[in-house]
Design goal:
Blueprint (H helix, E strand, L loop, with lengths): L2 H12 L7 E2 L4 E4 L2 E2 L7 E3 L2 E5 H7 L3 E5 L4 E6 L2 E6 L4 E4 L2 E4 L5 E3 L2 E5 H7 L3 E5 L4 E5 L13 H11 L1 E3 L2 E5 L6 E7 L4 E7 L5 E7 L6 E6 L2 E7 L3 E7 L7 H25 L11 E7 L1
Parallel strand pairs: 2-14, 22-23
Antiparallel strand pairs: 1-4, 2-3, 4-5, 5-12, 6-7, 7-8, 8-9, 9-10, 11-12, 13-14, 15-16, 16-17, 17-18, 18-19, 19-20, 20-21, 21-22
Protein name: Copper amine oxidase-like N-terminal domain-containing protein
Organism: Candidatus Ornithomonoglobus merdipullorum
Keywords: Signal
Length: about 290
């Protein structure tokens, strides 16, 4: 078969009608214990569940880029980059080709991708419960490198939708009275910042990166900048400073209260912009204690 015919067949496959795919209305997708919803319901092609690409990639915490001229999607999470092209049965993981049973396709103006293949490309565990028609996905978290920020994508999108853009960042201002507070997504650093400062520049904040870096809470207390680095999947944090020796034992209760208050305020801001992300999604379980 010549290349022209192959290209035509690939394009035809990409726009298959509902008569050639089976609806997967009964299929439920659950990630980290939370059911997922989709603008276009999952469908089954060649015994593979297909879901909208942006929903699955961003829920995994990946950055998604779409090239309409080539109908190619490229997504990146940490050190892993996945590339798929509509109608092409080859997926590339960091440049290495992987054959797909069902290539990406377009249904109801949404690009659909194979759920298991793209999830496993990022190291996620995928389990199928045939008795309930449910796919369970558990994202991979590298040991010792911190949480993969499972809620990062959802929180980022909420900030973009609610915030104002200036200088490469989207920001939502929550300032009241003498307290300046904001939730910001920096497009260059691919990071989310929460900050709250008083008129005398005493304050606190939170840093969330999309590269597996552990969640960090910072507190500017009495001129000393303290960083609470959270242990993966726990309520425990380790305090480091800007190089100054500090009496941590005598300050433990005060530091813990400040970090707890910062996290609580940040969650209120998440809720205020309509985000469903919680601290648990970011790998932090309350109440906090110092390591």
């Amino acid at each position: 078969m010549n290349k022209t015919k192959t290209a035509v067949l690939a394009a035809a496959f990409a726009v298959l009608t509902s008569a050639q795919v089976s609806a997967a209305d009964a299929v439920q997708v659950v990630m980290n214990g939370s059911p997922m919803s989709f603008e276009v319901p999952p469908v089954v092609i060649n015994d593979r569940t297909m879901v909208p690409l942006r929903a699955i990639f961003e829920r995994l915490g990946a950055i998604v880029a779409w090239d309409g001229s080539t109908q190619t999607v490229t997504s990146t999470l940490g050190s892993i980059t996945v590339r798929l092209t509509v109608g092409d049965s080859t997926m590339y993981i960091n440049g290495t080709p992987t054959e797909l049973d069902a290539p990406a396709c377009i249904i109801n103006d949404r690009t659909m991708v194979p759920l298991r293949a793209v999830s496993e490309a990022y190291g996620a565990d995928v389990d199928w419960d045939g008795s309930t028609g449910t796919v369970y996905i558990t994202p991979y978290t590298p040991l010792g490198t911190g949480t993969q920020q499972r809620g990062f994508g959802e929180l980022r999108d909420s900030i973009i939708a609610s915030g104002e853009y200036e200088g490469g960042a989207y920001s939502v201002d929550f300032s009241q009275g003498t307290i300046s507070s904001a939730l910001t997504y920096d497009t260059e650093d691919d990071a989310i910042y929460f900050s709250a400062y008083t008129a005398n520049s005493t304050g606190a904040g939170m840093l969330i990166f999309n590269d597996g870096t552990p969640l960090t809470v910072f507190v500017d207390s009495n001129g000393d900048l303290l960083y609470g680095i959270f242990e993966e999947g726990t309520n425990k944090f380790r305090v480091i400073s800007n190089g100054l020796p500090l009496p941590y034992e005598s300050m433990e209760e005060e530091i813990t209260e400040l970090i707890d208050a910062t996290l609580t305020l940040a969650e209120h801001c998440f809720d205020a912009i309509g985000s469903d992300t919680t601290l648990t999604d970011l790998g932090v379980y309350r109440n906090t204690t110092q390591l």
